[in-house]
Write the structure tokens for this entry.
Amino acid sequence: METAAPFKEAIDELRENGAEAFKFCYQCGKCDTVCPWNRVRNFSMRKLIRETTFGLIEIEREELWRCTTCGRCPQECPRDVKQIDNIIALRRFAAGYGVFPGPVKPIRTVSGNLTADGNPFGEERAKRADWAKDLSVKTFEEGMEILYFPGCYLSYDARLKKVAAATVKILNKAGVNFGILGAKENCCGESIRKTGNESLFKRLARENIKTWIDHGVQKILVSSPHCYHTFKNEYPKEFKVNFEVVHISQYLYELMNEGRLRINKDYAKKVTYHDPCYLGRHNGIYDEPRALLNKIPGLQLDELPESREKSFCCGGGGGRIWIETPKSERFANLRLEQALAIGAEELVTACPYCITNFEDSRVVLGHDDLIQVKDITEVLQEVV
Ligand code: SF4
Ligand code: SF4
């Protein structure tokens, strides 16, 4: 038996939780036409919006948790319905009642881990800087050029620690005076916020902000578009702070243009670039990663069929990175097939969630020998 929340209470709570624009929807269905879910199974944002309008919100349904917040449908909506705000408000509502349907249950553990250790994996906070042990990375001190904030995946995940190491190697080559804050760093909180846990987001964010102020941080370099998005847009909006935030793809482009970083080797490979949703669509950073790759002699950069503003989501945003998705429903599998179809030897991207999902797809689809998945820094480290 599913629970339909009482009409007035649900609508009022949704309004309080930031969803209001659902009332403008006129059910055209353009959102469903572009939603990546409808390439792997049925899912209707249009229907969810309609149910919201009538207060018929069944908070036990997994449908509430499907949206990856990829940002594709708001581009098409003629009524500016703000589907993402709406879905997050619905999740806040469900999370407020402690309702997490089957596949979404890991969110509870993730929230517990973030509360206890500042990372989603339940790894010890004290080990957050272990990735940097053999790389002679300095601790950040006031007056340094930039704070490097690798984020949770690059700090703890075996595959993604290689991206952190590549970043350090490049920064050292360019002579950048940078440091890290290791165990003093928390998860940025972007994804847990998208699961409706507003109080945990605020707690993680406040602690990060306090740490940065205490250490005299002014400029922050990030590897994850999710960290970028929340530091650049959400922290200033919620907490009125104004740190300068740069994504690694922007920063490396800047270093090259300033002549601090030089390419001195060829890279004779066919490469394609996947735009992460939170770097591209949500923040408009499309050109710098491509410009970096195009500077490399020998590298052939071919575009994927759905790229830039229309980039196809990997499936990892909106907290979905922590939710088990059946193999037949993984968007990343389709993206990997697209890369193979254009003859790419390497699928390059600039987001830890995309890398995690694409690496998984390589194994699931048995394409390990056909294509490599790389972060843009892993390509750059080979040629500088
Ligand atoms: S595109 Fe906008 S107006 Fe059309 S059904 Fe979707 S939410 Fe409603
Ligand atoms: S934001 Fe993306 S995943 Fe969510 S409903 Fe819109 S198109 Fe689908």
